[in-house]
Amino acid sequence: MKLTNNELIGLYRDMVYIRQFETRVQELFAAGVLPGFIHLGIGQEACMAGTCFNLVDGDIIGATHREHGVLLCRGVEGKAIMAELYGKVTGTCKGKGGSMHACGLKQGALGNNAILGPAQTIVNGFAYAHKFRKNGKVAVTMFGDGASNRGEFHEGINFASIWNLPSIYIINNNGYAISVPKSKQQKVEDLSARAAGYGIPGVQIDGNDIITVVETVSEAVKRAREGGGPSLIELKTYRWRGHFEGDPTPYRTNEELESWKKKDPIARFEKILTDQGITTKKDFGTINAEVKAKVDECQKFAEDSPWPPMSEIYTDVYYHNEGSVQQ
Ligand SMILES: Cc1ncc(C[n+]2csc(CCOP(=O)(O)OP(=O)(O)O)c2C)c(N)n1
Ligand SMILES: [Mg+2]
C-alpha cells in the first residue's frame, strides 16, 4: 500500500491533533474547569488515526470511553467535542453527555459508549444494513482488552461471523482494564487468536506503528467492503495516563511507562518521515503550531458558549412521570 506524502503528513497531523487535544483536556480537567470523568487516549494515537484513515462517508465506527481521538479523526468538530466536555449547549450532545457520550452521528461516529460491550453488538446492526443495501460500507468497533471479555464481544463477533457482516473488531490492547493487568484477565496471550473460535481472520500487530495499523486495517476494510466478512485486529499499545484522570496508577511501574514512552507513536513516525526526506524538523514545528492554534480555538469556543437553558432539561432524555416513562 503506497501512501502519498500528503496522506502521510495528514496521518501525522491527526496524531498530533489527538495528542494536543487530549493534553489540553488533561490540563483543563486538572484545573477543575471540566466537570465529570475523563479517560485519555494519549499514547494510543496511532490506533485511532490509523484506523480512521481507512474509513469513508457512510462507514460507521462505535468506540468506547478512551476514544475522543476517533471523533476528531472522523471529522467531528473539535470545538463541539470540547464544548461537550465543558457541558455547554454547543456540544455534540448539547452538553448532556460529556466525555463518555460525545459523538458525531453525521460522521458515522456513534460516540464514546461508557458501557463496555454494547458497541460490539450495535455496530452489527449498521453492518447488517450495509450488507442488505449492498453499499460497500463497513462498521467498525474499537474497544479495549478488558471489553473483549464481555459477553457482548463474543456474541457480537459470532453474529458478525455467521452473517458474514462487514464488521471489523479492533482491540486497543493497552495491557490493563483499570488496574487489572492483562495476565489477570485472560489466559490467552494473543487476543487476536480468539478470531479462530469464530472462523474469521485475526491478527495482532504493533498498535504504535501507524503505517502497520493503516495497512492492516486497510486489508480488513477492503475484505469487508468486498463481501469477505468480519475481521478481528488486536493493536498492542499503552495508555500513558492513568485509567482515568486522577488515577495514581499504583498498579504499574515508572519503568514500564518509560519503556512505552520510548515507543511513542508520534516520535517514531517523525523519524520515518524525516528519514525518508518527506518532512523536516521545521515542518513538525509548523504543524504543531497550527494544531495548537486549532486546540486554542476549541477551548475558546467552549469557554464562550452558553450553558444549556433550563428548557433543555427534559428534552433528549427519558424521565419517569407518575409511573410512566416518557420522552
Ligand atoms: C459493563 C461494564 N462493566 C464495567 C465497567 C467499568 N469500567 C469502565 S472502564 C473499565 C476497564 C476497561 O478496560 P479496557 O476495555 O481494557 O479499556 P481501557 O480502559 O484500557 O482503554 C471498566 C471495568 C463499565 N464501564 N461497563
Ligand atoms: Mg485496556
Task: Please tell me about this protein's structure.
- 46% of the residues are buried.
- The strands form three sheets. The chain has a six-stranded parallel sheet with strand order 2-1-3-4-8-7, sandwiched between helices.
- The protein contains ten helices and ten strands.
- It is of the alpha/beta class.
- It has a single domain (5-326), classed as Rossmann fold.
- Strand 7, helix 7 (210-225) and strand 8 form a beta-alpha-beta unit.
- It has helices at 5-30, 45-52, 68-73, 78-86, 119-133, 151-162, 210-225, 254-261, 265-275, 281-304, and strands at 60-63, 109-112, 139-144, 167-173, 176-177, 180-181, 202-206, 231-236, 319-321, 324-326.
- The radius of gyration is 20 Å and the shape is globular.
- The termini are far apart.
- Helix 1 (5-30) packs across helix 2 (45-52).
- The structure holds thiamine diphosphate (TPP) and magnesium ion (MG).
